[in-house]
Amino acid sequence: MKIERLSSIIQWARGKSFSSRPPNSLSKQIVRRVFFLSSIGILSLATAMTLGLATSVERVKRKLERVNIQAARTTDLFILNIQSDLIATSASLSATHDPDAVLRNMLARNASLLDIFLVKPNGEIIVQQSRVGRPKYSQTQFNALKLLEDRNQNLDFGEVKMGEIYFANQFPQLDMAIAVTDDIGLPTATLWVSVDLNRLWNKIIDIKAGKDGYAFLVTEKGQIIAFRNRQLQDPEILLQDRIGRSGLDIARSGFNFYRGLGGEWVVAIAQRLEIIPSWFVVVEQPAREFLTPLLLVAAIWLGILLVAIAIVYGIINFTRKRIVIPLGLLREAVGRLSSGDWEYRFEIPNTDELGELATSFQRMAGQLRDTFATLEHNNAKMQVLNDALSQSERKLTQFLEAVPVGLFVVDAQGKPYYANQKAKELLGKGVDSEASAENLVEVYQAYIAGTDRLYPNENQPILRALGGEVSNTEDMEIHARDRRIPIEIWGTPIYNLEGEVSYAIAVFQDITERKKAEAERQRFTEQLRELNIAYERFVPEQFLQLLDKTSIIDVHLGDAVQKEMSVLFADIRNFTTLSERMTPEDNFKFINAYLSRMEPAIVENGGFIDKYVGDGIMALFSGSADDAIKGGISMLRKLKKYNKTRTRPDRPPIHIGIGINTGSLMLGTVGGSQRMDSTVISDTVNLASRLETLTKHYNVALLITHQMFLKLANTQHYDIRLIDRVLVKGKSEQISIFEVFDADPDDLRAAKKAMKTNFERAVLLYHLGLFAEASELFQHCLQIHTDDGAAQFYLEQCQNKII
C-alpha cells in the first residue's frame, strides 16, 4: 500500500497527473461563482424545506407508530389475558369436581367477564355464573343468545374461539369459547364467556397522539369498536361510510391523509392486531399540529439564506483580490514544477500568509527534488520486500490451514480475526462478523461439557488470554450440525512491541475418541472395583494384605507368610438338634441370620473371617491379643440381643462356645491348579479349635489360653478366672486355660467376680486330690449363683471322686 502511494507521488511529480489546461479569466470565474452560489442558495432553501417537511412527517409518523403499537399492545394484552384465563380455567375444569367454584373464581378475578356458561356438547347448561344484576338464563333463554355463529362447532384442544362484536346500549361485547376435555383429550363440555369491552374502551380512549390525536379500534368489516364518541359505536355505522376508507385500506397505505372521524383533516396509520387479525388499531392526529412548526422552520431558513447570500458576495470580492490572483501565480509555479522545471522562481508582493506560502513553496521545491530522487531508489527496495512479505504470508496461511488442530484468533476487542480449515470444521462456521467478546459462546455454540448451559465467559481460555493469561480446559463442547463435539482448548495471548495484548489465539482439538476411551477405562475400572468387592467376600482384603498382595490376581498357589496372630473359633451348641427341626431352606436362613450378626463383631475389632465351617466361624486377628478378646466378647453380646428375637417354641435361644489362642502361624494358599483356598496352619490354630470344644465340657462361653492371657495389655480390663490345666493332644506339657465372662448376665458376672478367688482355690485343691475340700468351695460358689456351669462341672467331678 505504501509502495503504491509513493509511486503516485512520483508520477505526479513527473507531471502525469497534472492538468495543463490554461486557467479561465478571473472575471468569468467570479460570474460563474456568483451564479453557482445563488443556485446553491435556492437549492439549499428547497432542500431545507423538503428536509424539514420530511423530518416533520417522519417524526409524526414515528409518533403515530409508537401510539399505534401502544394501542395494539394494550388491546392484544387485554384479549390475551382473557384467553389465558379461559385456557387455565378449562384445565382446572378438567380436573375439578366443583365447576361452580372454578367459575366463581374466574368471574371474581376477571372484571371484564359478564356471563360464564359451562355447557354440555348438546347445549345443556351445566353451570352459569353472571355479574350482579345480570339475569340468570333459562335453557330456552340461553339457546336464544347469540354467543357464537355456530354453537355446535368442534373446538380444537386449547383453541379459544371468538365471535363477532355486538353492542348493548352502544357498549361493545364479545363472546369467547373453549373446549373442556377429559384426561385423554376428548371434549366433555364447552366454556362460554361474554366479555364486556368497556374496560378496553377506557384504555383506548386514554391513549393520545400528540395534543389532540386519538386512537380507536375497528373491525375488518368497518364496525367501530372503541371510539371516544360512543354515538359512532353502532352496528349501522361503518368506518368506510364515514371517511371513505376501511381499516384495511389505511393499514395498506401506510401513512394516510384524509378527513377523519372528528371532521378535520388528519394524518393516520393503522395496524392489524396479532391476537385478533380481523381487528385494526387506527391512530389519527390533526394535520394542523405538524404543519405550523414546518412553516415556521421554512421562514427561518429563508431569512438565513438571504443573509448568507450577502455575506458570500462580499467574500467573493475580497477573495478575488487577495487570494485568486496570488493563487494564479502559485498555479503557474506548480505547473512549472510538475513539468520538471525545478529552478523556476516567482514573487508575490503580498506580505500575508500567501507571501509566506510562496517563499515556503520555493524552498520546498528544492527539498522535493532531493526527496523524489531518494524515493525512486527506495521504491525499488520496498517492492522487493513487499514481494517477499506476500510470499511469507502465503506460506504461513498454507501452514496454518494444514495443521490438524483448530486454530482461532480474536483481536484485542474479542472480535474473530482468523479461523483455519480445521476450526471451521469443528465450529461449523468460520469468522462471523456478528461475534464479539460478549456473545462469542452464543455465536459458536460453546457449552459446558455434558450440559445445555453456555460456557461462562470468565472461564473461556481465549477470553482469559486477552487478559494476558495462558490457560487450557477440557470441559467444553461445541454443539454444531446436530452433534456435540467435546474439545480440549488452549488460550494464549499475543503481544505487540509495546507489551500489550493485540491478539489472542486458541488452539483446540476434537477429543471425542479420548472421551470415549476415558469412559471405557472408567467403566472397566468400575467393573474391576465391583469384581474386587465380590472377591473380598470370598478372599478377605486383610488376607491379601498379610500376603503383601494388592489384588486377588497377584495371589499364587503356595504363597505363604509366617505371622504372630490370634485365632478365634466359635460354634453353635447343639446345632445338630436345632437343624433337625428345620427344613434345609430354614437351616440356611438361620445360619445366615446368625453369621450376619457375628461378622460385624469380628470386623469392628480388627479381625476378619478366614472361613465358615457350617455353623462354625474361624477368625484371625493380626493386631493385639486384646482385639481378639474384645471380638469374642462382642460376639456374645450381639448373640444376647439376637436371642431376644427367638422367644417362640420353634425358635429357642441359641448358645455358642468360643475358643481363642495366640501365637505364630503360617498363613497362605493350598490346593491344586484348578482350585485353591486360603488356610492357616499351626498348633496355635489347633489349640484354639480345641478350646472351643472344651467350652461345652466346662459349660462356659469363652475360653483362652495362658499365652493369650499373658499377651493382654491389661488383664484388669476383663473379667477372667482360671478354669483348668489340660493336656492337649500332641503336646507333652499341660496348658492353663481361662474363662472370660464379661458377656455373662450381670448377676452371674457379679457372682463369678465375687467368688473368683474361692473358685480358683477349689480348682487347685481339685488338682491336688483334695476333693472334699474342693467340693465344699464349689458348693459355696453354687450357693452364690446356681448357674455357674464350671462350678457345677467340678462339683460333680469331686463327688464322683469321693465315691
In words, what does this structure look like?
- 48% of the residues lie in helices and 23% in strands.
- The strands form 4 sheets. Strands 19, 20, 21, 22, 23, 24, 25 and 26 form an 8-stranded mixed sheet that branches. Strands 1, 2, 3, 4, 5 and 6 form a 6-stranded antiparallel sheet that branches. Strands 7, 8, 9, 10, 11 and 12 form a 6-stranded antiparallel sheet that branches.
- α2 (26-95) runs antiparallel to α3 (99-109) and α8 (288-338) crosses α9 (353-402).
- The chain is elongated, with a radius of gyration of 54 Å.
- The relative contact order is 0.05.
Strand and helix layout:
Blueprint: H1 2-13, H2 26-95, H3 99-109, E1 113-119, E2 125-130, H4 139-144, E3 160-162, E4 166-168, E5 171-181, E6 187-196, H5 198-205, E7 208-209, E8 213-219, E9 224-226, H6 239-243, H7 247-253, E10 256-259, E11 265-272, E12 279-286, H8 288-338, H9 353-402, E13 406-411, E14 416-419, H10 421-427, H11 440-443, E15 446-448, H12 461-466, E16 471-480, E17 483-495, E18 501-510, H13 512-536, H14 541-546, E19 560-572, H15 575-580, H16 584-603, E20 607-613, E21 616-621, H17 625-643, E22 656-671, E23 676-681, H18 683-698, E24 702-705, H19 706-710, E25 720-727, E26 734-740, H20 746-754, H21 756-767, H22 771-784, H23 789-802
Parallel strand pairs: 22-24
Antiparallel strand pairs: 1-2, 1-6, 3-5, 4-5, 5-6, 7-8, 8-9, 8-12, 10-11, 11-12, 13-14, 13-18, 15-16, 16-17, 17-18, 19-21, 19-22, 20-21, 22-23, 24-26, 25-26
Helix pairs in contact: 1-9, 2-3, 2-8, 8-9, 16-17, 21-22, 22-23
